[in-house]
Design a protein that fits this description.
Two copies of one chain form a homodimer. With about 375 residues, chain A is of the alpha/beta class. Chain A has ten helices and 20 strands. In chain A, a hairpin with an 8-residue loop joins strand 16 and strand 17. At the A-B interface, helix 4, helix 6 and strand 12 of A face helix 4, helix 6 and strand 12 of B.
Chain lengths: ~375, ~375
């Protein structure tokens, strides 16, 4: 908890549920990422938290932006970002969104299929494009499935096709999965990417960009390797695979920029023992899976939860959201413990909720509004 | 598809994703429920779709309302509902919400724990309360887990406690799970509830209310028993369990009132074969799990999807949402088929999406706004 967040929480000047983000911590994380990977351009993954104060602060620090939609691109432009610093990173885009981005001056686009390439050729002629590879995401707490990416062979063919369509085949990308705690995933992926560079050089195409994606982990309840470990492992793999002819490197951190800069405050709505659940204690909060904590699905992301000021021993608790929906249960199996004295009206903190919380919140499930947001 | 919805879709006067609801169909469903269970008061489960035009129409038809939150209660009052016709049905409520409801004149409250009862005694003195039983939900496509309800023995003790706290012990409720396709679940649950009535009569407490909950199924891809079958089975069970001294009956339908009155229109963003997924065809829509189709989690609710005007054979397809999130995949295993000619820019219809869609939609995940809503 940063001092600024602690002061805000002490002030009590907010209704729950609320999410507060310390912009100085955002800036510090950005600096730490730059220090760990000085050779890589940082494209902040806007989807992690697109709030204007965050985009403003990052734009001021010289960050670039990875956008998932035309709405996110508009938000970056509103924050003063140069369109030339925005990557349209979703490989699945409406043609109208591509056209609008292109009109705004966005030059860099992701793709992973021939169908997307055709849309790009039509709506963003002459744009720089990079092809997303499908790589192993083993080790990621929030993997991205087979929804994105293609094989190295197919990527090579598509990048040739891109040139033939009048686009600029600019590079390749991959994503090792979100909250990826292993550095090993990068080695294989970078080697795969390098093969595409080599193959294409033989075909007269000089790729420039290696987009290393995001997924850098932050500490929730368990320790993770520090960002320096990732920086070193990535650079060693890049040198091993590319020798002296290093490509332009790009990373797309989101969680690692804003995750631990935020804290959620929630009120306990009910705490009681459930005879029908073997006497287990259930704690119902005023934020749940549909109020922003969507990444608790399958108990994938395990947030640190504390109840400051509540004395007494901690006992096992199932932790659920406030809605009438039975799937709105955050933790049953992970083994959370909360003070046995916790009762309705008490406040709990859900830590490291700066990323992937506010935007997941439903617009009004069961009538509950999204959490209030505070940027400090 | 109702003629009114068909005309609306033909008009093209909307952007996608959109959800359109035929209010006449809502009224017809309300009438059908009343005809199937004429002895039960209908409390529309507002959480299914709280849009003002729906609440207005239902209030005009004499519907009562089951609300999950104070925000839903305010919406009902704004639609002209008499506070005496509103049940605050969430067993997990903030004390401030109870107090506000009580001030507005709401008289009927659910609970299932001693802790909630204490809040009700304090914030809604003299209110009518009913205790939710935990019953088997086997047969439900969207069960409500162990999050709610208690045993018949505990319910009996709690209802006595309610009287001692100055509340009016008014009855019991249960919920057999949402999209419950079996009528058998009601028989056991009603017998359990009747035992509580009998036990309490011996203790000098005359319960009046049997709240049968909601969960009545609608036809998605598979046939379900008609509502008449549920009505007959429920009334037979009630008569068997209560004899001639029938309690006041209450049902809380949501899906059965608005589900098949709505249709979602979505644009195909990308359709392509995924070599990395064994050559499977993926179709990416501009609505997904975080754009409202949350009940596709685990492929639980299997919507009927059609692509009118697209000719050609249907072939297997994985169906995914537009976001960069790997879990934003709606159907992989259910065996959906879509026309092989389907391509980016084409429109598909997702049928029977009037319930549990609009409110689940995230406020802006990946920058995508919630679907536009149209009430006809």
């Amino acid at each position: 908890m940063t001092p600024k967040l602690a002061r805000f929480l002490d002030s009590g000047a907010y209704a729950t549920p609320a999410v507060a983000v310390d912009l100085d911590r955002v800036a510090a994380n950005f600096a730490a990422l730059h220090a760990a990977l000085p050779d890589a351009a940082i494209y902040y993954a806007v989807k992690a938290n697109p709030a204007a104060p965050i985009l403003d602060r990052l734009a001021g620090l010289g960050s670039r932006f990875d956008a998932a939609s035309i709405e996110e691109i508009r938000a970056c432009l509103a924050a003063g970002a140069d369109p030339g610093t925005i990557s349209f990173g979703n490989t699945v885009k409406k043609q109208s969104a591509i056209a609008e981005a292109h009109e705004h001056g966005v030059e860099l686009f992701a793709f992973d299929s021939g169908e997307e390439l055709a849309k790009l050729a039509q709506a963003a002629p002459g744009a720089k494009v990079y092809c997303r590879l499908s790589v192993s995401q083993s080790g990621a707490d929030w993997p991205l499935s087979r929804k994105f990416g293609t094989s190295a062979d197919h990527a090579r063919d598509l990048l040739i096709e891109a040139r033939d369509l009048g686009l600029i085949p600019h590079g390749v990308s991959f994503h090792v999965g979100s909250q990826q705690t292993g550095v090993g995933a990068y080695r294989t992926a970078i080697a795969q990417a390098a093969m595409v560079f080599t193959d294409l050089r033989a075909r007269g195409i000089d790729l420039r960009l290696l987009n290393l994606g995001g997924g850098f982990p932050i500490r929730y309840r368990e320790d993770v390797p520090p960002i320096e470990t990732f920086g070193e492992a990535i650079m060693a793999s890049v040198r091993a695979a590319f020798g002296n002819d290093l490509p332009d490197l790009l990373i797309e951190p989101g969680r690692a920029v804003v995750g631990d800069a935020g804290v959620a405050v929630s009120e306990v709505v009910l705490a009681c023992a459930r005879a029908e659940d073997g006497g287990r204690r259930w704690v119902y909060l005023d934020i749940g899976r549909f109020g922003g904590l969507a990444e608790t699905e399958g108990e994938a992301i395990r947030y640190r939860i504390s109840a400051p000021g509540i004395a007494g021993a901690a006992t096992p608790a199932v932790i659920a959201g406030p809605s009438c929906d039975g799937v709105d249960v955050m933790y049953r199996d992970t083994g959370y413990r909360l003070p046995s004295a916790l009762k309705a009206g008490d406040r709990v903190l859900i830590h490291d909720t700066g990323a992937y919380v506010t935007t997941y919140a439903s617009q009004g499930f069961n009538g509950f509004p999204p959490p209030q947001e505070y940027y400090l």
